[in-house]
Amino acid sequence: MYELLKRDGLAKRGRLHTVHGIIETPVFMNVGTAAAIKGAVSADDLKTIKTQVELSNTYHLHVRPGDKVVKKLGGLHRFMSWDKPILTDSGGFQVFSLADLRKIKEEGVHFHSHIDGRKIFMGPEESMQIQSNLASTIAMAFDECPSSVADREYMTNSVARTTRWLKRCKAEMARLNALPDTINKEQMLFAINQGGIYEDIRVEHAKQIAEFDMEGYAVGGLAVGESHEEMYNILDVVVPYLPAEKPVYLMGVGTPANILEGVERGVDFFDCVYPSRNGRHGHVYTNRGKLNLFNARYELDDRPIEEGCKCPACQSYSRAYIRHLLKAKEMLGMRLCVLHNLYFYNTMMEEIRNAIDAGEFKGYKKRKLDGMAGTEGP
Length: 378
Fold this sequence. Notes:
Elements: E1 2-8, E2 11-18, E3 21-25, E4 27-31, H1 43-48, E5 54-56, H2 58-63, H3 67-72, H4 76-80, E6 86-88, H5 92-98, E7 102-105, E8 108-112, E9 119-122, H6 124-134, E10 138-140, H7 152-177, E11 188-193, H8 199-210, E12 216-219, H9 228-238, E13 248-250, H10 256-264, E14 269-271, H11 274-280, E15 283-286, E16 289-292, H12 312-316, H13 319-327, H14 331-357, H15 361-371
Parallel strand pairs: 4-5, 4-14, 5-6, 6-10, 10-11, 11-12, 12-13, 13-14
Antiparallel strand pairs: 1-2, 2-3, 7-8, 8-9, 15-16
Helix pairs in contact: 6-7, 7-8, 10-15, 11-14, 13-14, 14-15
């Protein structure tokens, strides 16, 4: 159940009650593709850095180690020793982005594994079955992820197929949740809005999926090559047609600025690989801009990444030491940067929630963006 606690303009302050605990929104989900955050980050670390939701990838866990293996081991929560909410994506994006050889039909998609080339078939029912085996808190409906530059005719047909697939996903999820051997019988299902940058297709699809009365709604197919302005425009156009009393999830987004803009337009959930990927390359976020710790200017810098930061990296280590680790290709350097970045994101979401509670989100957004305007901090 989702509680809409407060609105500050279009920004929403909510609370999603799940079988694995309460999610305070707006929230950033920390991406652990293969049931782990890249950069040697453990489930205990996630709690330390204020993670509310971990996101894992259906496609990747299906091909390795196999969702049936995960089920035999008690589901994803037991497998990775994490007792808070987990969202699994449907595998749709990976099927369409990773698989070179694929054939889309009404029943689903035939493709080859990017790991060993074996033939795989995934449709709405298969995606729901895999996610049920993983026993995540929130499952995503299986959708087609067309190119953002697909022509209007293709986009129209693709979105219609995604709507038909949603109906099948909902029916299969209801069936699976009623089975005696299902690990999580209260698994939630979110629908996904598609349509590229065609405003009318997006709006019509939003109206159609709103009628399914899902437990949440995502906006997919953005942050895939279109400009930030085009993405924000689609949110302006589409979010008002998604149920306000349900959580809205902007998939795969993004930078701190993207998140602030999304919150201002009524988005509750975000996820992105940026903080962990950038951290593994020595790029760290601060309230005064982004730092590249490989730069020579940090060789003798004995300050933490950011003064006042309570993350594990900043509590104990200097920029100079972390730079040394990165240059020496020591895994600890990557790990500390990833921990800092995820803590920065999770703390920003906490600040956003507090700002909405106080009715001052607009002022907070301006101060945050102004502070981060530089590309290199002190």
